[in-house]
Amino acid sequence: MYVSDLALTDFRSYPEALLSLDPGITAFVGPNGQGKTNLVEAIGYLSTFSSHRVASDAALVRHGAARAIIQARVVREERPSVLELELVSGKANRARLNRAPLPRARELLGMLRTVVFAPEDLSLVKGDPDGRRRFADELLVLLSPKLAGVRSDYERVVRQRNALLKSAGGARRGGGSADLRTLDVWDEKAAAAGAQLIAARVGMLRSLRPHVQTAYERVSSGQSEAEVTYRASVQQAMSDDGGPDGGEEPLTNPDLVEAQLLEAMSKLRPKEIERGVSLVGPHRDDLELRLGGLPAKGYASHGESWSLALALRLASYELLKSDDWQADGEPVLILDDVFAELDNRRRNRLAEVVTGAQQVLITSAVAEDVPEELDGARVDVMGSAVTRVR
Ligand SMILES: Nc1ncnc2c1ncn2[C@@H]1O[C@H](COP(=O)(O)OP(=O)(O)OP(=O)(O)O)[C@@H](O)[C@H]1O
Ligand SMILES: [Mg+2]
Questions:
Q1: What is the pLDDT of residues 179-214, one digit of tens each?
Q2: Which of the residues 79, 106, 301, 352 could staple to 148 if both were Cys, CB 3.0 to 4.6 A apart?
Q3: Ligand 2 center from residue 66 Cα (angstroms)
């Protein structure tokens, strides 16, 4: 698939921007701070409803404006659709598809698939579990859009459950008694949605794993082996008393996971009430990354960490292209400022992989940083002037 047209209104630095794009390679070139990343960030946002740069949407709306609009014409197997998203900070997004409003914005998810490579990816390896969970969930939703609903239900349930745990803790400390029956109901809801999410993540990870291994071998010249494992907080909670954690297999069965979550919640209830937060479930899980048997975080060198981050993105691209998940539509590749960060070897490897893609959007402050084999169209970006050069 590819994006043939992009229109922005009050997005980031752009009051208005209109841009036509071709399949193949396009490089956005211009000095720092001129709005190159802003353009590709808009396309990425339309695909996952999240930015690769910021956690909150507030910064996406142009300073002083009330809302931002991203509109793109996406061509998938020769069939065009027009996707539109309106962002109002602090409120839910509103979406339209071919000009018709959608009852829920998340119905737009899955219509445009992107894989974004950016300097921020280093935090997949070096940063907190939160970034890795987001990585897993965004990929999962691209592969299986209906899981967006499960994910947002789960997040809502955890928020409400936490509020209830907090008030139960307050009641206990004040000498009263907590409303445990209501809490039971929320345990059940959290376990049901949480189990679906965990089973789906682990299933996805199983398909992704071989791609991560090959991609890492390719970018690192096979010095060591990359491993990625799912760390489930529910298994950790249950094995605290010395039992085995059961391995990955049971995690692919939602019924089993649901039962384990309920058991763990009842075991942890006093602690959860005391702390006022939910201590088990997919929101506390992690993807553990290892290189040559050692945890990548804390052990891997800077270059190794970069290779692994790159491998995770390349693997996502391969998985989205493969039909393991009845995935249709090759994703658009977005390479935001990555070439300047990579050494020659990794630069060439990445260039090799992306030359075959249907559409590749590259940003770079200097044209010379883009490898020669990625020669294609060029768009000069200067403030809000976006001009196609060739
Ligand atoms: N919400 C906003 N409202 C107005 N301007 C914004 C907003 N968010 C970002 N900007 C402006 O956009 C510019 C940054 O744009 P962008 O990150 O796309 O630059 P770039 O061309 O990718 O630069 P670099 O080469 O340094 O990566 C900055 O000048 C910033 O002030
Ligand atoms: Mg940039």
A1: 788 899 999 999 999 999 999 999 999 999 999 999
A2: 106
A3: 24
Using pLDDT thresholds of 50, 70 and 90, give the confidence band for residue 242.
low
- Give the domain CATH number at 183: 1.20.1050.90
Residues with CB under 6 A from ligand 1: 12-13, 30, 32-38, 59, 61-63, 337, 363, 365, 381
CA 286 to chain centre: 14
Give me ligand 2 centre to Cα 33, in Å. 7
Supply the pLDDT for residue 325.
Answer: 63
Arithmetic mean of pLDDT, 64-90:
95
Instruction: Note whether residue 103 is domain-resident.
Output: no
What is the position in ligand 1's atom list of the atom closest to the CA of 59? 1
Closest ligand 1 atom to 337 CA: 27
DSSP result, 230-277: EE-HHHHHHHTTS-----SGGGG-HHHHHHHHHHHHHHHHHHHHHHTS
Which residue segment(s) compose the domain that 207 sits in? Answer: 119-328
Q: Cα 199–324–247 angle (5° rounding)?
A: 35
Ligand 1 atom at shortest distance from the alpha carbon of 39: 18
Query: For the chain, how many structural domains are there in total?
Result: 1
d(CA 188, CA 120): 37
Mean pLDDT of the chain: 93
- Could you tell me which of 214, 224, 210, 227 has the C-alpha nearest to residue 353? 214
Give strand pairing partners of 27: 362, 378
- Residues having C-beta closer than 5 Å to ion ligand 2: 37, 337
Between the ranges 176-180, 237-241, 312-316, 372-376, where is the mean pLDDT highest? Answer: 312-316
Task: Kindly indicate the confidence band of residue 235, based on its pLDDT and cuts at 50, 70 and 90.
Answer: very high
The answer to whether 1 touches 76, Cβ cutoff 8 Å, is yes
* C-alpha of residue 32 to centroid of ligand 2, in Å: 7
Instruction: Determine, yes or no, domain membership for 130.
Output: yes
Average pLDDT rounded to a whole number, residues 368-380: 91
* Ligand 1 mutation pick, 14, 38, 62, 336, max ligand atoms within 8 A of CB: 38
Per-residue pLDDT for 243 more than 70? no
Instruction: Flag whether pLDDT at 220 surpasses 70.
Output: yes
**Span from the CA of 28 to the centroid of ligand 2 (angstroms):** 10
Rounded CA gap, 135 and 124, in Å? 8
Q: Ligand 1 centre and the CA of 246: distance in Å?
A: 48
Asked whether residue 277 is assigned to any structural domain, the reply reads yes
